[in-house]
């Protein structure tokens, strides 16, 4: 009986080689475009089929876009967070598909998609022309445009600080720390909403606080149409628009009262950011089952939660607050992140924030993860929920008794579990005493929060694992406080 074992090893190798050579010849004759071979019927059929598929793909996109134009979303913001997100996700797949087509093939359909985006997000245009995010999309679609506001990215990455007169003092503290203590090499851009938001005098003070480092100033009202935004009166609402308007491709967006233990450039080295293009930080774990209507609404709008949301304790165990938006890092070169940011901008537009976003949640803080989640954009949270940097209130002399660390700030660590930043400013309690600074001594993370009863009362984290700030960390904060006191005096920043 014949078996493969009956063939010699040499015969098997020769047979395999002959089969392989014939396969190569067959493939070469059927698919080659070399001029000395005649085009085969199979090749013509393949080419024709491919072209038909391309045209049908474009036609399907055109029909879908026309449907969105003909049947716009309901004029009920609270009901359309999720649906707008899914439509935006579909827009992304269309844009990505059209990027691979020739200009003459996609011109009509690309133009229709452009009009659809402008109608859904009318603030993307301004009197100076289309904005940078819309220009980015138009470039992908091959649509020409004239604009004075959509400049090429000035740098691959930079720090963006939205501020106005109300937060000017803390912005000066932050900029003094970044330029004098951390000596960051990243460019810094301050974004504001017109002269009434941040005066020319305020802008001069920011430049002075930078101690010779040039700070770029950007009036966001020159970039976006403010008719439906009203950013000068929106407080936190300016933040996503600052990120979108910035001339940096990768944006480290900071609240004015952010405080750093490390150079913010460290954020760009975090694996989670480089994997997804968007890095967010968790708030404190508080008030389990405290806001059932909020939770029900989230679950109603997010029909298909991502793995990032599926592992959230706020989502699965119904804690009340998910995001600390005092620091957000985004890479706008990624289309999904860019479109997620546009959804976040919509959530912070005038009507939507006043009717929904800021009523159901506190300010802009939850709009970030919701925007990325709703649009199917990749994003990641730092794995820990918010910790604390402050002062130890109990002596750790009893292993059975929890130790408390108390303050008014929320702290965060990097991927190596080292303190990275906290929000709340350098003052011990900015809501009560405008002149008292004090270097914290201890920190905690992944323990139990006990919220203070009012803004005058410290919040505490209690647990058995407490860490003392290192001498280096204390030294950084002391130098930052010294820089803050210096600009307070020189620039007359302390309120009277």
Automatic annotation (TrEMBL):
<dbReference type="GO" id="GO:0000033">
    <property type="term" value="F:alpha-1,3-mannosyltransferase activity"/>
</dbReference>
<keyword id="KW-0328">Glycosyltransferase</keyword>
<dbReference type="GO" id="GO:0005794">
    <property type="term" value="C:Golgi apparatus"/>
</dbReference>
<dbReference type="GO" id="GO:0006493">
    <property type="term" value="P:protein O-linked glycosylation"/>
</dbReference>
<keyword id="KW-0472">Membrane</keyword>
<keyword id="KW-0812">Transmembrane</keyword>
<keyword id="KW-0808">Transferase</keyword>
<dbReference type="Pfam" id="PF11051">
    <property type="entry name" value="Mannosyl_trans3"/>
</dbReference>
<dbReference type="InterPro" id="IPR029044">
    <property type="entry name" value="Nucleotide-diphossugar_trans"/>
</dbReference>
<feature type="transmembrane region" description="Helical">
    <location>
        <begin position="12"/>
        <end position="31"/>
    </location>
</feature>
<keyword id="KW-0325">Glycoprotein</keyword>
<dbReference type="GO" id="GO:0016020">
    <property type="term" value="C:membrane"/>
</dbReference>
<keyword id="KW-0735">Signal-anchor</keyword>
<keyword id="KW-1133">Transmembrane helix</keyword>
<comment type="similarity">
    <text>Belongs to the MNN1/MNT family.</text>
</comment>
<dbReference type="InterPro" id="IPR022751">
    <property type="entry name" value="Alpha_mannosyltransferase"/>
</dbReference>
<protein>
    <submittedName>
        <fullName>Uncharacterized protein</fullName>
    </submittedName>
</protein>
């Amino acid at each position: 009986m014949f078996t493969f074992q009956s063939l010699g090893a040499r015969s098997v190798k020769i047979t395999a080689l002959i089969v392989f050579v014939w396969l190569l010849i067959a493939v070469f004759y059927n698919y080659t475009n070399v001029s000395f071979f005649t085009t085969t019927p199979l090749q013509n059929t393949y080419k024709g089929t491919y072209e038909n598929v391309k045209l049908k793909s474009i036609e399907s996109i055109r029909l879908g876009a026309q449907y969105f134009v003909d049947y716009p979303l309901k004029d009920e913001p609270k009901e359309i967070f999720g649906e707008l997100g899914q439509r935006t996700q579909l827009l992304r797949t269309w844009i990505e598909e059209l990027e691979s087509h020739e200009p003459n093939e996609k011109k009509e359909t690309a133009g229709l998609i452009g009009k659809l985006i402008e109608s859904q997000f009318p603030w993307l245009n301004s009197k100076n022309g289309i904005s940078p995010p819309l220009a980015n999309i138009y470039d992908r679609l091959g649509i020409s445009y004239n604009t004075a506001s959509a400049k090429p990215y000035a740098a691959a990455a930079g720090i963006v600080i939205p501020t106005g007169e109300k937060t000017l003092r803390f912005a000066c503290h932050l900029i003094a720390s970044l330029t004098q203590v951390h000596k960051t090499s990243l460019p810094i851009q301050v974004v504001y909403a017109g002269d009434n938001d941040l005066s020319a005098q305020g802008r001069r003070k920011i430049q002075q606080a930078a101690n010779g480092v040039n700070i770029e100033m950007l009036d966001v009202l020159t970039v976006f149409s403010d008719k439906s935004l009203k950013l000068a009166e929106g407080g936190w609402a300016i933040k996503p628009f600052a990120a979108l308007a910035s001339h940096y491709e990768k944006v480290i967006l900071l609240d004015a009262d952010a405080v750093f233990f490390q150079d913010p450039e460290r954020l760009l080295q975090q694996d989670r950011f480089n994997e997804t293009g968007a890095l967010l930080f968790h708030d404190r774990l508080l008030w389990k089952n405290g806001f059932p209507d909020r939770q029900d609404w989230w679950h109603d709008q997010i029909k298909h939660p991502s793995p990032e949301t599926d592992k959230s304790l706020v989502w699965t165990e119904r804690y009340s607050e998910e995001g600390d938006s005092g620091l957000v890092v985004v890479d706008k070169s990624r289309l999904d992140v860019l479109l997620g940011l546009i959804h976040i901008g919509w959530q912070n537009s005038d009507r939507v924030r006043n009717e929904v976003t800021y009523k159901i949640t506190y300010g802009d803080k939850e709009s970030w993860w919701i925007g990325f989640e709703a649009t199917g954009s990749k994003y990641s949270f730092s794995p820990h929920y918010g910790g604390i940097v402050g002062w130890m209130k109990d002596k750790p002399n009893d292993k059975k008794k929890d130790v408390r660390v108390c303050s008014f700030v929320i702290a965060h660590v990097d991927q190596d579990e080292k303190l990275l930043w906290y929000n709340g400013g350098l003052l011990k309690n900015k809501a009560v005493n405008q002149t008292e600074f004090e270097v914290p001594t201890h920190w905690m993370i992944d323990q139990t929060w006990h919220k203070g009863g009012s803004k005058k009362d410290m919040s505490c984290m209690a647990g058995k694992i407490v860490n003392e700030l290192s001498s280096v960390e204390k030294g950084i904060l002391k130098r930052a406080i010294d820089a803050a006191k210096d600009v307070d005096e020189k620039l007359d920043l302390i309120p009277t």
